[in-house]
Amino acid sequence: MTMRVRRRDVLIGGAVAGVAWGLGDIAFLHGLRPVSAAETDLDPKVVRLDPSIEPIVRLLEETPRERLLEEVADRIRKGLSYREVLAALLLAGVRNVEPRPSVGFKFHAVLVVNSAHIASLASPPEHRWLPIFWALDYFKNSQARDEQERGWTMPPVDEAAVPPAHKAHEAFVTAMNNWDESAADAAVAGLARTAGANEIYELFFRYGARDFRSIGHKAIFVANSWRTLQSIGWQHAEPVLRSLAYALLNHDGTNPAERDDEADRAGRRNSELVSTIRENWLDGQLDDGAVQELLATMRTSSSEDVCDQVISLINSGVSPQSIWDAQFVFAGELLMRQPGIIALHSVTTSNATRFAWQASGNDETRRLLLLQNAAFLPMFRDAMPGRGDVNDLTIDALATGTTAEGDQLEVDELFAELSRDSMSAARKVKSFLRSPGAARELIDAARLLVFLKGNDAHDYKFSSAVLEDYFHVSPQWRDTFLASNVFQLQGAEQPDNDLVQRTRAALG
Description:
Layout: H1 7-12, H2 15-20, H3 54-62, H4 65-77, H5 82-96, H6 108-121, H7 129-149, H8 165-177, H9 181-194, H10 197-208, H11 217-232, H12 237-248, H13 262-273, H14 288-300, H15 303-315, H16 320-337, H17 341-359, H18 363-383, H19 411-420, H20 422-432, H21 438-453, H22 457-469, H23 475-485, H24 498-507
């Protein structure tokens, strides 16, 4: 089945739009039994969660995939809140899905929770449950995959190893620097119980960006876990932080602290270079010429050369915003060259690192994050040939063949074109965005198409990052950024996903 987006349908955004999209009301089967007290008994070898959320997590864990959405919908009708569902979804993921062999793959059940939440918050009320229900279904898929691989479940913390409050910070830093999983697990449990949230995440911001393993998923987990915890409450933090520390210590081979691995070199070098950035580095000027200059360097040069140029530009008075503009636009350009998993993660990693940069209150950490993301982008670029052909395209291609100023464009035309010819659609998008209010209209339509057509966690992760970062890019660059990223958005002529079909079936 194909869907066409009409400008009127997107703009009105209420019940009429729901009918136009064929979504209807989110009213599932009712009359299903509640969870009994006996069902909340937990294996002593499994980590215990906050008592207020444990029964809901158990519901997600134990309900068969083919019945979960109906069960959750029934509980919502009986008073289960959005926040409780979101908390249970994240906690079920960290308790049942191991961030191994990589912080990706099946672990996207955890990584996608915040992306689904962002999509939900940006949606009209009648669509708000769709991203969350999609993530619930995706969790069951990841849970099954984990059971097939190792059947891992997060165990209780070793209480005897948890350091006292006054030693927890130092113990955690030592354990992370030594890549010591058991010591880090005990130390982060101590931090979760006694330290402030900002203090803890200042540490995680640095460790999430210190190495180029798992194609950016470490930084993504840091940002997404922090954002979700801010929504569900810090009382749920300990198991999430334990999962996060375990994920950030993921590596292959011998201890990275004892070898010179390529994945760690940029972090070690940039940790020394941060001190060479001028003291008043945040007080620079926007500079389009600097953006173009940095783009040219990132297309061909090494990570070291790119970081050196970033420092030179900052020290010459260029604003960090122009450095971020170049990085966001270059990530979109990589996606133009090779739509797919590598370039996609250059976009989502930049989103996560930029969030950490904005959230951090430590000046040295902010300098490091700016340099680390700059270092990672050439690494993404160099990894792309291993995934297939790479087109010789730059953002300049978006300026050719665009629609004339006076021509009328409709959202449905753009997304129908995207299903047939991505480059043509990207050029038309750039023209379309010149009209007042066009960006919001296109973003609303793009997000709704993800609900209808998305089949993979990356559909939510990527779209949430891009549609958010449109407003983080300077006005003179943001249309180019969004146009370059339509290569990975959903076209209107793609088939509906299974969740939409299942929702309609449940509605009768």
